[in-house]
Design brief:
442 residues, alpha/beta, TIM Barrel, 4 domains, 8-stranded mixed β-sheet, 7-stranded antiparallel β-sheet, 23 strands, flat, disordered C terminus
């Protein structure tokens, strides 16, 4: 903690209270209390924070009849009557101003008075206590009406669509790569298509041109997370003029009709209803969710058409996602992408658990990091294989998920995540052989 603050803004600390080796120029200093901030925040921290809803009132006051009022909020209207008939006033009857004054006293409720209309006949006398009772009863009715659950209509939905005839044709193998090294091996294999899943857009254009030059079909995998302000990444990929592997429902809707799309497993298509919905939005094929086993995937393929299913045969699973960038933290003296020097473009990072397994850490264009599942002796080259075809029986073989050994690795990595250490492999051309450098995880 801070021991004292000088007039020039210098901070003094108690002896031995701070490890100055962990402080870098540019780090932020936080104040736990500030009188000016408290004063500015007072209007927002005291009193009601409920968003007010406008309520309009129409009132009818006639001598010999009860006071009738109608309170309207949006499309909802409640009516409140006084019960007993009104009598004639001895001096002055009800007018608009006192009526508005009493009805506007809505306090900390969720309502504020809007317009008030009064129709009065015969100088009726309305006591203040009666107006207050009518107001409170109207507020109670409005709150009860707004809190009530709207009626729900349940319709029978048939998920067992009739199987569709299989279209004859050989199955196809699609490869997904995440590094230029994987790309060269994939091109040599000559699959039906190659999907570039570069979490960082760095190097995307050269790799795209490299695949197009071979005559192979190339696709681009969109980011799994697109925050407000990051829409330009999807726009950039769309303008490249190649099919996209889309990973979120919002992006499917945003890119609808603008480019060829294939749906990834993250769309969670678990039945024919969901699959048909996404396919009707313009997807050429869709990948079933990991929640289905091999038999269920095969059944889904028979119902929506095996030529529209792209099942995952093998892949490295992402096990952790974080906003914290370990590249910036351990491989630079900067604090953001503006001054970090982009070490993610020249280094590879992995988290090594106590069992010696290395779990690759990948950075994306938004400076977010994703940890992929690893294993003993990992070469830091994650890849995926996808399979699609016309005949479901030939396409969907085995469980479309990671082997049991990998599932155990994921559990172990999660259990030991707090004790994991950061392992950094340098792949700079100036170093003849990769070298592991360990440092304590934050």
């Amino acid at each position: 903690s801070v021991y004292s603050v000088s007039d020039r803004g210098e901070l003094r600390f108690a002896n031995g209270a701070i490890d100055f080796g962990r402080i870098r120029p540019g780090d932020l200093v936080w104040r736990t209390h500030d009188a000016d901030v408290d004063k500015a925040a007072k209007p927002y921290t005291q009193g009601s924070l409920v968003r007010k809803q406008r309520v309009d009132v129409v009132a009818e006051a006639r001598v010999g009849s009860p006071l009738r009022t109608a309170w309207t909020v949006g499309a909802l209207t409640v009516t409140v009557d006084s019960g007993e008939p009104l009598v004639a006033a001895q001096s002055r009857g009800l007018t608009l101003e006192p009526l508005r004054e009493q009805f506007s006293r809505l306090g900390t409720t969720a309502y504020e008075l809007g317009t008030v209309e009064l129709t009065a006949e015969g100088e009726p006398f309305v006591p203040v206590s009666l107006l207050n009772r009518v107001r409170r009863e109207a507020v109670d009715k409005l709150q009860e009406l707004q809190a009530a659950r709207p009626p729900v209509e349940i319709h029978d939905v048939t998920l067992t669509a009739a199987p569709r005839p299989a279209v004859e044709g050989p199955p196809q193998l699609h490869l997904l790569v995440r590094t230029p090294e994987q790309l060269e091996a994939a091109i040599a294999f000559a699959p039906a298509s190659i999907t570039l899943d570069y979490l960082d857009l760095y190097g995307l254009r050269p790799s795209l041109d490299r695949v197009l030059a071979t005559g192979l079909t190339v696709r681009l995998a969109t980011p799994r997370v697109i925050k407000p302000g990051e829409e330009k990444m999807a726009e950039f990929m769309t303008k490249l003029g190649v099919p996209l592997l889309v990973r979120s429902a919002g992006l499917v809707e945003a890119l609808r009709g603008r480019t060829a799309m294939v749906g990834d497993f993250s769309l969670n298509a678990a039945n024919s209803l969901t699959a048909d919905t996404f396919l009707s939005m313009g997807l050429e094929r869709i990948t079933p969710t990991h929640d289905l086993n091999a038999e269920q995937v095969a059944d889904l393929a028979r119902r929506v058409g095996p030529e529209q299913i792209e099942a995952i045969a093998y892949q490295h699973l992402p096990v952790f996602h974080t906003e914290h960038c370990v590249f910036c933290r351990f491989l630079s003296t900067g604090t953001s992408y503006k001054d970090c020097g982009r070490p993610c473009e020249t280094h590879r990072v992995a988290v090594r658990d106590p069992q010696g397994r290395a779990h690759p850490v990948l950075a994306d264009a938004g400076c977010r990091n994703r940890v992929m599942v690893g294993y003993q002796g990992l070469s830091l080259r994650p890849c995926s294989q996808r399979q699609s075809g016309a005949k479901g029986s030939r396409t969907l073989t085995g469980r479309p998920m990671a082997p049991a050994k990998w599932t155990m690795d994921v559990s172990t990595a999660t259990t030991w995540s707090r004790r994991a250490r950061i392992a950094i492999v340098s792949v700079k051309s100036t170093i003849s052989a990769p070298r592991w450098i360990s440092g304590a995880a934050p």
